[in-house]
C-alpha cells in the first residue's frame, strides 16, 4: 500500500511540474519588469517554486506606455497685416495673433517688437503696445509649452507706423 501511495505522489509531482507554464521576464523602456508566457528578444526564463496560472492569450500586442503625439503648432500675426501702414498719433498699436490647431491649456505666447520682448507670457494672443515710435517695425510672436520651452515662432511681420509730429503735422 505504501508503494502505491509513494508512486502516486511521484506521478502527481511529475505531472504538476510538467504542466507548469514557462514564464519569461524583461525590462521595458521605463525599467519596469514585464512577465509573460511569450518570450521576447532579451527575455530570460523565470523558474517558479509554486505552480501559477497564466492566461494563454498573447500579450505581446499590449503596450505599457501611451505615447503622446507631438503637435506641430503654427503661430502667425494676423493684425496688423504684413506691410500695413498704421496712422496713430498716440503710438498705440493693437496686435492679434493666431495659434493653430488650437490654443490649448498650458500654452503661452509672448511678443517681440524689433527684436526685443515687449510683453510677459500670456494665455491669449491679443497685445496692446503703447507709445511705439514712428517708422518701420517687425513683430514676432513666440509660443511656449507648459514647461516653458519654445515650440513655435511666427514669421516676422513688418508694419509701418505714421505719427504726426509738431514739425510735420
Describe this structure in words.
With 169 residues, the chain is mainly beta. It has two domains: 2-46, no CATH class; 74-162, Immunoglobulin-like (Sandwich), CATH 2.60.40. It has one helix and twelve strands. The chain has one helix at 2-18, and strands at residues 23-27, 33-36, 44-46, 74-79, 84-87, 93-100, 108-113, 116-117, 126-129, 135-144, 150-153, 157-162. Strands 5, 7, 8, 10, 11 and 12 form a six-stranded mixed sheet that branches. The protein is rod-shaped. The protein starts with a helix and ends in a 7-residue tail after the last strand.
Brief descriptors of the model:
about 170 residues; mainly beta; Immunoglobulin-like; 6-stranded mixed β-sheet; 3-stranded antiparallel β-sheet
How would you sum up this structure in a few lines?
It is built from one helix and twelve strands. With 169 residues, the protein is mostly beta strands.
SSE topology:
Elements: H1 2-18, E1 23-27, E2 33-36, E3 44-46, E4 74-79, E5 84-87, E6 93-100, E7 108-113, E8 116-117, E9 126-129, E10 135-144, E11 150-153, E12 157-162
Parallel strand pairs: 5-12
Antiparallel strand pairs: 1-2, 1-3, 4-6, 6-9, 7-8, 7-10, 10-11, 10-12
Amino acid at each position: 500500500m505504501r508503494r502505491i501511495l509513494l508512486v502516486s505522489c511521484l506521478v502527481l509531482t511529475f505531472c504538476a511540474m510538467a504542466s507548469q507554464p514557462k514564464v519569461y521576464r524583461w525590462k521595458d523602456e521605463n525599467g519596469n519588469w514585464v512577465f509573460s508566457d511569450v518570450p521576447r528578444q532579451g527575455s530570460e526564463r523565470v523558474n517558479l517554486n509554486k505552480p501559477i496560472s497564466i492566461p494563454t492569450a498573447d500579450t505581446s500586442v499590449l503596450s505599457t506606455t501611451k505615447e503622446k503625439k507631438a503637435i506641430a503648432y503654427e503661430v502667425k500675426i494676423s493684425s496688423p497685416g504684413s506691410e500695413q501702414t498704421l496712422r496713430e498719433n498716440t503710438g498705440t498699436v493693437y496686435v492679434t495673433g493666431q495659434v493653430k490647431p488650437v490654443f490649448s491649456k498650458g500654452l503661452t505666447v509672448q511678443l517681440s517688437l524689433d527684436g526685443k520682448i515687449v510683453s510677459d507670457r500670456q494665455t491669449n494672443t491679443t497685445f496692446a503696445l503703447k507709445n511705439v515710435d514712428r517708422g518701420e517695425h517687425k513683430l514676432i510672436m513666440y509660443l511656449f509649452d507648459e514647461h516653458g520651452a519654445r515650440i513655435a515662432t511666427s514669421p516676422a511681420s513688418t508694419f509701418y507706423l505714421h505719427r504726426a509730429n509738431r514739425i510735420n503735422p
